[in-house]
Fold this sequence. Notes:
- The protein has 6 helices and 9 strands.
- By secondary structure, it is an alpha/beta fold.
- Helix 5 (122-132) links the parallel strand 4 (111-116) and strand 5 (133-143).
- The longest helix has 13 residues, at 75-87.
- The radius of gyration is 16 Å and the shape is globular.
Amino acid sequence: xxxxxxxxxxxxxxxxxxxxxxxxxxxxxxxxxxxxxxxxxxxxxxxxxxxxxxxxxxxxxxxxxxxxxxxxxxxxxxxxxxxxxxxxxxxxxxxxxxxxxxxxxxxxxxxxxxxxxxxxxxxxxxxxxxxxxxxxxxxxxxxxxxxxxxxxxxxxxxxxxxxxxxxxxxxxxxxxxxxxxxxxxxxxxxxxxxxxxx
Length: 198
C-alpha cells in the first residue's frame, strides 16, 4: 500500500468518514513527523488520533521495534484509526485506546514523542505529556484555531519545555480545471513543537 520510508501518504489513501475530521493533511503530517524527530524504536503517543493519519505515519517511522499509542475519546475515530492501521499493516506497532487524553496518557509508558491534534483539555494534556516524555522527548501540537496555538505556546513554556518552535503552514493544492491547474488553499495550521529538558 505504501512502500516508502518517507512520510507523506496521499490523503485519499486513508479510509475516511464524514463523522470524523481528517486525516491530518499530507503536508502537515510530513512536517509534524519531522518536528517529532522520530527514529526506529521510538515510542510515540498520538492524542486525538482521529482517522489515524499521524498514527500510521509514525508507526511506519518507528517500526519494527517502536510503538505508537493512539488515543481518542470518540468511538467512531477509534474505529477509523483501527481500519487505517490495518490497511497499512501497522497492527503490530500500534495500540489504540478509547478515552480522554489526560487520563489515557497516564496508562502509557514513558515516550519519545507526543502528538496533540485534538484535546478538550489542552493545558492538562500538555502537562501530562510533559510527565510522560523521556528526557529530550518531543511534543508537537497541531492547531487550527489561533486560541489553541496560543494556549499551546503558553503551556509548553510554563511546563519548562525548551527549543519552543512555532511554524504557521499555508498549503495550496493544485486541481485540474478545464483551462489548466487552479490552486485551492487549505486552512492554515500552526505547529508548535518543543523539547523536554533533560
